[in-house]
């Protein structure tokens, strides 16, 4: 048995109780969760059942770091005792509570669990999983393989609207490695930090002429700005306003991480796609393996990427999750909340 923060019904709250500790399947890993990181999806699921929770009682949460307790018979990528980070989600497991992150022991498909470098704490490791897979999936969603390596001579630019958050800041890091000239938006207090992560230019999204500023910078730099990632809500229209002036007659492509509403803005010769992994399990599992085992693991080991954004630690363990989710819901800027459990 182990403790878990259980969602008993739509609208919450999370209630701490005991669950039977599951056994991992042949291609799964059981981890002892040490720290979880919180995402807007977590309080949305708690409060509004969106994304849908298939059945109650449920265990939600998806970002975790911990220690491998057991491995399935087919798993050779990690061993018991290994410190790991993991994308621990019940979303792709028909809502089975064995897979949610908000508990002391959770089952994870081996594709989404990798060793945590010794230099990183559990708190740092926990901020990485969903940020990494979301940032990388944004590129593949619009046809950019994650092994792409543009050169400076290619003059490829990208606009990431909303760079200060978890998805945006990691999107900056991935775009830098892909070889893009990176333009992003954020409040001025985050500009220096985002440039340190790899942004070439950062613009204040509150400036009335922010669209004109980005257009001017891209033209001055002589880059082909045909690609964008909308990492925050209400960013599609200004992103399209930029692309309208920078893409010329070329086709443009936009990955959209927030839910893409049916009546969303459009632009001629521009593909706008909701950022989401394939619904085909085999294809999705292969993509997850590539994201974690071939991309994130190598780039963490080499130091090419770092956990981002800054971490805000909240106490209380499993019992403190409701209060921590309420803080996230009330709004934070440039930080990701983590809770040691």
From TrEMBL:
It comes from the Eukaryota. Keywords: Oxidoreductase. SMART domains: PKS_ER. Pfam families: ADH_N (PF08240), ADH_zinc_N (PF00107). SUPFAM superfamilies: GroES-like, NAD(P)-binding Rossmann-fold domains. InterPro entries: ADH-like_C, ADH-like_N, ER, GroES-like_sf, NAD(P)-bd_dom_sf, Trans-enoyl_RdTase-like. Residues 11-339 form the Enoyl reductase (ER) domain. One of its GO terms (molecular function) is oxidoreductase activity, acting on NAD(P)H. The keyword Metal-binding does not apply. Belongs to the zinc-containing alcohol dehydrogenase family. This is Chaperonin 10-like protein. It comes from Chaetomium fimeti.
